[in-house]
Amino acid sequence: MSIPMMYRSAIAALLSFVLPASSFAAEAVDLNAVYKIKNEAFENSKVMDHLFYLTDVYGPRLTNSANHKAAAEWAVKQLQSMGLKNARLEKWGPFGKSWNNTHFAAHMIEPSYMPIIGFPQAWTPGTNGTVTAEPVMVSIKTEADMEKYKGKLKGKLVMDMPIKDLQMATAPLARRYTDVDLNNESLAPDPSRMGGRGGAPSAVGAPGTPPGPGGEVSAMGSFMAMRQLRQKVNKFFADEGAVAVMNYGAKGDGGTVFATAGGSRNEKDPVPPPMFTVTPEHYNRIARLVEKKIPVKMEVNIKSEFVDAVDGFNVIAEIPGTDKADEIVMVGAHLDSWHGATGATDNAAGCASAMEAIRLLMASGVKPRRTIRIALWGGEEQGLLGSRAYVKEHFADRETMKVTEQHAKFSGYFNLDNGTGKIRGVYAQGNDMMRPVFAEWLKPLEDLGATAVTNRNTGGTDHQSFDAVGLPGFQFIQDPIEYSTRTHHSNMDVYDHVQKGDLMQASAVIATFLVNTANRDELLPRKPLPKPRPAGPAGGPPF
User: DSSP state, 111?
Assistant: First the structure.
């Protein structure tokens, strides 16, 4: 049906009001730069070289430990060799005492010999040589329960968990997201579950996802109560003269042991006895023998030392910009790790990918308009400490929302910290304005499997420090692989469980996002500034 001429001008005017987005220029993507980045990433990758040094050479990188410091100094030299400027270790303030472990051996020597798979818990002391002790089962759920064990633990090895009921494994340890998973992730979250927080938990269950509506306060209160009881129980064991405490992790079997800290970095907190975590199959065998009153002897030798408190630090370096050099784009990952393995998927993989993304930009001859800054954070495992302190120093105080001049000149931060999996998309963190931008950036990367944009939030890592003060801070969606089932905070978090092709892909995707952010005409769009939010309990994160 034809439209009379007299109505056409009126319709055109109306459409100019109801469809204003049609007049906006499409998000520009430099396809030549993308080509160069991909070519360098897949023809001349160095990402596994970075990973090798961070894991096999420098090993576990507990915050402020000797290994962490050595790895950080190596990273500074590598970034300098790539041609970056202002590469340095930047202090961020007091951390507390650190801790090093240099030896662990545990054996059952009676009624028959069995070597034990396990490792010590951080911030617990050594045994001062080899100790031989009889294991005893202890069950303390309240302070009142301690009374019945008084005078009975001297010289004993305490087992303070019940026998673990191990179930047959029926699902694979590793998986990748399907198209259905990614499509579901891209859908808007159920408003009834958002809890007034501007987002909802990730549909695909990203590590570190915050509790659901109403759960934050109760979960934190429960955590603090358990922590206080644990400290009292540990002090009781030490006062009673227990030689060590042995337990198993909340998950894991088949020789995979999950564990983090047993003591505290705070010099004012009581020092527990030596504590170590073992695979539940070995724990269960010993526990069954004890329950049947068959005499058991254990032999344990742990060498651990506390390190005097010094300031924490981050690794910082940058590629200077050109006509917009005073504006900042950042990429980061946390360099610190736990100590049971070499911190490969958590998070040497993220650090290696971020460093490789920077190398790709340098090797490709890309000239960023804005300054691109890389940060390898310290203290992430203890509560995002390095990134929180950096953001407070350079951009804004989350508690007061007093901002610096640099806050207005910041464009975006991109983080990688969910294991070895390839990047499948990006979390927009409730920023609707970023959805069309990310959608355009991902089009040249669709053949790499990076397709999804979700408005959902994800938590538990350093992009939160930026998002919490109103700065565009984003975490990538990654294939889970074995992250939660096998490597995250376990003795299996090693080089061999990192997927080379995934890190090559991730490096290319990150480099593309960086150059797109650095070279667009405008800063990335932002959400409104949040209201001030005081620190959480015991100085915990205010977000």
Answer: S
Q: What contacts 113, CB < 8 A, 6 or more positions away?
A: 107
Tens digit of pLDDT for each residue in 206-217? Answer: 444 333 333 344
Residue 53 near residue 74 (C-beta atoms within 8 A): yes
Nearest to 468 by CA among 541, 540, 519, 383: 541
Q: Do domains 24-95+310-538 and 101-168+210-305 have the same CATH topology?
A: no
Report pTM: 0.90
**101-168+210-305 is classed CATH 3.50.30.30:** yes
The whole-angstrom separation of Cα 472 and Cα 523 is 10
Half-sphere CA count of 189, side-chain side, radius 13 A: 27
Position 382, amino acid: Q
C-alpha distance from residue 30 to each of 43, 174, 221, 512 (Å): 20, 35, 49, 9
Residues 38-51: pLDDT tens digits? 999 999 999 999 99
Closest by CA position to 120, among listed 298, 292, 305 = 305
Residue boundaries of the structural domains of the chain: 24-95+310-538, 101-168+210-305
Residue 119: beta bridge partners? Answer: 277
Reported as a pLDDT band with limits 50, 70 and 90, residue 535 is: confident
Q: Alpha-carbon distance 415 to 78, whole Å?
A: 20
Identify the burial level of 20 via C-beta atoms within 10 angstroms of its C-beta, where 0-12 means exposed, 13-18 middle and 19 or more buried.
exposed
pLDDT of residue 220: 52
pLDDT digits (tens, 9 = 90+) for 458-467: 999 999 999 9
Surface-to-core class of residue 128, CB atoms within 10 Å of its CB (0-12 exposed, 13-18 middle, 19+ buried): exposed
Amino acid letter at 68? H
Count CA within 13 A, CB hemisphere, residue 102: 9
> Domain 24-95+310-538: which CATH class?
alpha beta
340 CB contacts (<8 Å, ≥6 apart)?
60, 119, 257, 258, 259, 489, 490, 491, 493
- Sign of the alpha-carbon torsion through 339, 341, 347, 348: positive
Q: Is the pLDDT of residue 6 over 50?
A: no
Query: What's the pLDDT at 219?
Result: 54
